[in-house]
Amino acid sequence: MAASAPEPLQIIIATSNPGKVRDFSVLLGTDFPEAQFVGTEVIGGMPEVDETGTTFEANARLKAEAVWQLTQAKGGYAVMADDSGLAVDYLGGAPGVYSARYAGVGASDGENRDKLLDALQEVPVDQRSARFVCNLCLILPEGQLHQFEAYCEGTIANKARGENGFGYDPVFIGEGMTETFGECSPQEKAQRSHRAKAVGLLRDFLSQQVG
Ligand code: ITT
């Protein structure tokens, strides 16, 4: 009798950010024969997690562990959490892990962007370098933990441009580009973003696990 194909790994994407979900839907759509990605609805929604870490790695782990604990009643799920943000050199790496709450807890993306543009007013283009950071924390059903971190270099624009993406996309110009990520299509962002590169590392890992 022919051996049956292994079941794909079911991976819960542990985020409450709809912008990340949209990015992941472009990035995870193809090329993942080893895995199936599902939302947090399978565990009743994303829990509140206090992001008390001072690194992207620590906060990604806090989120992944909180969701992994909730899967234990059902078993069988892997979990992937994303902690990400923008590090601006002129600001000593700020907003960094505080990117989502740069203008205060509950601040909108627009308020965070305005605060950043204010902080960089009059700063010349050659001092506006920045990078997006993405740390993905994967916890396998049996509890083994793996983390993947990637970066996207760029500069901060003088004003917000474009309606696409989320967060700081309208003020971020990727290296070698003239448009902001807010002016790029989701597919163009997916060719170069920090999240795309981290997903590439995850893809390599998963294919080695199975291969
Ligand atoms: P979850 O914790 O539920 O995933 P969150 O928005 O709180 O959602 P983070 O703590 O990782 O997630 O904060 C990420 C922030 O960094 C996000 O709110 C944006 O402001 C910014 N950011 C991260 N990736 C980005 C991207 O691809 N484009 C624009 N801004 C991004």
Low-confidence stretches: none
Q: How would you state the average pLDDT, rounded?
A: 95
**Overall body shape:** globular
Structural class: alpha/beta
What's the CATH topology name? Maf protein
Fraction of residues in helices?
25-40%
What kind of assembly state do the chains in view correspond to?
Answer: single chain
If you compute it from the alpha carbons, what radius of gyration comes out, rounded to the nearest whole angstrom? 18 Å
What does this structure look like?
This protein has 211 residues and is an alpha/beta fold. The chain has one domain (9-210): Maf protein, CATH 3.90.950. Helix content is 29%, strand content 23%. It has 5 helices and 6 strands. The chain has helices at residues 18-27, 56-71, 109-119, 186-192, 194-210; strands spanning 9-14, 35-38, 77-88, 129-139, 145-156, 172-174. Strands 2-1-3-4-5-6 form a 6-stranded mixed sheet. Helix 1 (18-27) links the parallel strand 1 (9-14) and strand 2. Helix 1 (18-27) packs across helix 4. The chain binds inosine 5'-triphosphate. The site of inosine 5'-triphosphate has 25 residues, from helix 1, strand 3 and helix 3. Inosine 5'-triphosphate (ITT) binds at residues 15-17, 20, 23, 46, 51, 63, 82-86, 99-100, 109, 112, 132, 165-169, 193, 195.
Present the secondary structure layout.
Layout: E1 9-14, H1 18-27, E2 35-38, H2 56-71, E3 77-88, H3 109-119, E4 129-139, E5 145-156, E6 172-174, H4 186-192, H5 194-210
Parallel strand pairs: 1-2, 1-3
Antiparallel strand pairs: 3-4, 4-5, 5-6
Inosine 5'-triphosphate is lined by residues 15-17, 20, 23, 46, 51, 63, 82-86, 99-100, 109, 112, 132, 165-169, 193, 195.
